[in-house]
Amino acid sequence: MVEAVQGAGVVVTGAGGGIGAALARRFAAEGARVVVNDLDADKARSVAEEIGAVALPGDASSIVAEARDALGGTIDVYCANAGVGTGGSEAAGEEAWARAWDVNVMAHVRAAEALVPAWLERGSGRFVATVSAAGLLTMVGAAPYSVTKHGAYAFAEWLSLTYRHRGIKVHAICPQGVRTDMLDATGSVGDLVLRPTAIEPEDVADALFKGIEEDRFLILPHPEVAGFYQARAADPDRWLVHMNRIQQKWEENR
Ligand SMILES: NC(=O)c1ccc[n+]([C@@H]2O[C@H](COP(=O)([O-])OP(=O)(O)OC[C@H]3O[C@@H](n4cnc5c(N)ncnc54)[C@H](O)[C@@H]3O)[C@@H](O)[C@H]2O)c1
C-alpha cells in the first residue's frame, strides 16, 4: 500500500479501457476513492461499477468541477490519461491536428488551470500525465501524435519545475507499446515498432506506483527508453539516421 494514495480522491481520464482502466483499478485497490472518466459512457460505467468508483462520462477537457464535487470537494490526484493516437504526416489534416492538440495537450492545460489554485492553497496535489515515449523520442508514421506528446511532456515538465517547491508533484509516464485498443489501431507501424516489446496496462500502473514511492517525475515502464533518450540528446544526427532506417523498413513492408 502506498501511503500517499490511501483514502485519496483520484480522477483518471480515459479510464474506460486500456492504461486508464488499469490505473483506476490500481488506485482503487490501493484504497483511493476514484472517479472514472471516459468519452465512452458505457465503458466508464462498467469500469466504475467493477471497482466501486464513480463514473463521470464526458470529454476529459472539462470534468474537473464535476469530479471535485463527486469526491466531496477535493481532488488529490489527477491522472490526465485520455489521449488520441493520431497518425499521419504533415498532411493529416487540420481537423486531426486540432483534435490531437485538444486531447493530448490542451486537456492537460485546462485541467491544471482548474486544479492548481486549490492545490497551491493547501500546499499539495499530484498531477499524473500519461505521455508516451513518443514525447521523448518520436513515433514513426505519426506526426500529430509525436508533436502533441512532446507538448504534453513539456507541459508536465513546466508544471513540475514551477510548483514543486509549493507541494505539487508531477509524474510523466512515457511508455512505448502497451497492449490496448490504441496499439491495435496503429497497424503495420505499430507491429514493427511497438508490438515486439509491448507490455500490459498493469505494468504501466506498477511503474507509476514505483515512481510515486520513489518520488520520481519521469516514469519509464520500458527502462530501455532512458538509453534511447540519451542517445538522441548525445548525437541527434546519428539518432535520426537510425530512426530513418526504421522508416525505410516500414515503407518496404507496409
Ligand atoms: N497503448 C500504447 O501503446 C501507448 C503508449 C504510450 C502512451 N499511450 C498513451 O496512454 C494513454 C491511454 O491510451 P490507451 O493505450 O490506454 O488507449 P485506449 O484507446 O485503450 O484508451 C483511451 C481511452 O481514452 C478515451 N478517450 C479518448 N479521448 C477522450 C477524451 N477527450 N475524453 C475522455 N476520454 C477520452 C477513449 O474512449 C478510451 O477509452 C493515451 O494518452 C496514449 O497516448 C499509449
How would you portray this structure in words?
This protein has helices spanning 18-29, 41-51, 64-70, 94-122, 143-163, 181-184, 187-193, 201-214, 225-234, 236-253; strands at residues 9-12, 33-38, 54-57, 77-80, 125-130, 168-173, 218-219. With 254 residues, it is of the alpha/beta class. It has one domain (9-253): NAD(P)-binding Rossmann-like Domain (Rossmann fold, 3-Layer(aba) Sandwich). The protein has a seven-stranded parallel β-sheet with strand order 3-2-1-4-5-6-7, with helices on both faces. The longest helix is centred in the middle third of the chain and has 29 residues, at 94-122. The protein is globular, with a radius of gyration of 18 Å. Nicotinamide-adenine-dinucleotide is lined by residues 13-14, 16-20, 37-40, 43, 59-60, 81-85, 103, 130, 132, 175, 177-178, 180-183, 194. Belongs to the short-chain dehydrogenases/reductases (SDR) family. Keywords: Oxidoreductase. InterPro entries: NAD(P)-bd_dom_sf (IPR036291), Sc_DH/Rdtase_CS (IPR020904), SDR_fam (IPR002347). GO terms for molecular function: oxidoreductase activity. This is SDR family oxidoreductase.
Features:
254 residues, alpha/beta, Rossmann fold, binds nicotinamide-adenine-dinucleotide
Topology, please?
Elements: E1 9-12, H1 18-29, E2 33-38, H2 41-51, E3 54-57, H3 64-70, E4 77-80, H4 94-122, E5 125-130, H5 143-163, E6 168-173, H6 181-184, H7 187-193, H8 201-214, E7 218-219, H9 225-234, H10 236-253
Parallel strand pairs: 1-2, 1-4, 2-3, 4-5, 5-6, 6-7
Helix pairs in contact: 1-8, 4-5, 9-10
Nicotinamide-adenine-dinucleotide binds at residues 13-14, 16-20, 37-40, 43, 59-60, 81-85, 103, 130, 132, 175, 177-178, 180-183, 194.
